[in-house]
Amino acid sequence: MSVVWAFPGQGAQRVGMGAGVLDRYPDLVRQADEILGYPIREVCLRGAEPGLTDTRSVQPALFVVNALSWLARREEGPAPDYLAGHSLGEYDALFAAGCFDFATGVRLTRRRGEIMGRAGGGGMLAVVGADPDHLAEVLERGGIDGVDLA
Prior knowledge:
There is one protein chain. By secondary structure, the chain is mainly alpha-helical. The chain contains 6 helices and 2 strands. It has a single domain, classed as Malonyl-Coenzyme A Acyl Carrier Protein, domain 2 (3-Layer(aba) Sandwich). Helix 1 (26-36) packs parallel to helix 5 and helix 3 (55-76) packs antiparallel against helix 5 (102-118). The longest helix is centred in the middle third of the chain and has 22 residues, at 55-76. It has helices at residues 26-36, 40-46, 55-76, 89-96, 102-118, 132-141; strands at 4-7, 82-85. It is 50% helix and 5% strand. The chain starts with a strand and ends in a 9-residue tail after the last helix. The protein has a two-stranded parallel ribbon.
């Protein structure tokens, strides 16, 4: 049987995340604090400012918790056969695969959060099982353009 580790993306955050791993890796937490300029532990455990609703802080917070969870699990169990990540979680999968170090991951996800924080509001919708031609017709009637159908 294959072992797969899949890392979640934004939306998986919650106050209290990382409670089991943040104290286990104080040097890495300190490194993240220095890079980010605020205490990541307080953001993760208490939702302290800048908080867990702002993508600029959520993205590095999730990276840190997922990366530390990976390090803890790697010490305790078998290595996975495969690594995967959903959206932001891809950065943790790349870290776990050895593509870059922890500090680089914190910097990358901080920058990603900053860029996404500046992006205009938008939305996403998944309509599963609908006829693509019918959807295109409905969008056209509504004067909606710039929508990708896959």
